[in-house]
Amino acid sequence: MVTGHRWDGLQTLGLCAVVLMGLLVMDHVLEQLGEEGGKEGRLTARPSADTRQPGDRARASSMMPDVEMTGFQFLHVLPKPEAKPLWVLTASTASLFEQRQEADLQMIRAAFQPEQESSRVVLSSDRGRFDLKRLNFEVSGLAEPVTMQLAGQYRLTTSRLTWNNGTATLTSDQPVTISGQGLTVSGVGFDWVQPAGTVSIRHDVTTVITP
Predict the structure, then answer these.
(1) Which residues touch 211 (CB under 8 Å, ≥6 apart)?
(2) Is 68 helix (H, G, I), strand (E, B) or coil?
(3) Contacts for 59 with CB less than 8 Å, ≥ 6 apart
(4) How many Cβ atoms from other residues are within 10 Å of residue 56's Cβ?
(5) Which of 49, 50, 44 is nearest to 19 (CA)?
(6) Tens-digit pLDDT profile for residues 32-51
(7) What 3-state DSSP class applies to 66?
């Protein structure tokens, strides 16, 4: 189901279907962007005549997105009758690759348990890669570190986070720092389990308490 720029995660039937839906969405995107005046959404175009060797064409094709879009949003919900949002992933731009069934994203924001303010988790990142088949994604910082707000009280910073949709876990194998409420905890490796809402740092943990 496509509404504006929203994709229902449980109704995504592979990237082929996504690309077709993306073509329909792009008309709407271009109209909106034209009204706003400034940004441009576009579809990639393959050259009609290509004199490159087959191997070169294959390599170039794997690097060239099938669809590029501005204003990307993916909503993952429980099936009816609950229809409860589990998480929503947004990005300023997305490049979709049919063969890889992946999307490369820029300027990312992901919110877990978005309707539960007391337990909501929000992460922000410069860039990332989204697996459109398994609904996993990995984000990393470029100019700024990846940040993650935990229930509005604590802030985590690290260089990379990975979401596994099958196990509903958000993890990192990089150094992390969690700060807030007069407490700073740092260490290496991080795990957040969505159903239980538990947070843990794997090893080399250091805790600093400030008045």
Answers:
(1) 182
(2) strand
(3) none
(4) 11
(5) 44
(6) 333 333 333 333 333 334 44
(7) coil
Total Cβ atoms within 10 A of residue 41: 21
Rg (CA), the chain: 19
- The span from the CA of 101 to the CA of 19, in Å, is 10
**Sequence-ordered strand ranges (E) for the chain:** 2-3, 6-8, 67-77, 85-97, 102-112, 121-131, 137-140, 146-150, 154-158, 160-164, 169-180, 183-193, 198-209
CA gap 85, 65 in Å, rounded: 29
Q: Measured between alpha carbons, how far is 169 from 137 in angstroms, rounded to an integer?
A: 11
Specify the residue for token string 């159903």: 195
Distance of CA 10 to the CA centre of its chain: 16
For residue 150, what are the β-bridge partners?
A: 121, 154
- Cβ atoms of 129 and 99 within 8 Å: the answer is no
Quick: pLDDT tens for 179-208: 998 999 999 999 999 888 899 999 999 999
Q: What is the pTM of this model?
A: 0.70
Residue with the bigger pLDDT between 120 and 128: it is 128
Classify residue 64 by its DSSP letter: S
The Cα–Cα gap between 209 and 179 comes to 10
Query: Identity (one letter) of the amino acid at 149?
Result: Q
CA-CA distance, 34 to 27, in Å (whole number)? 11
d(CA 49, CA 158): 46
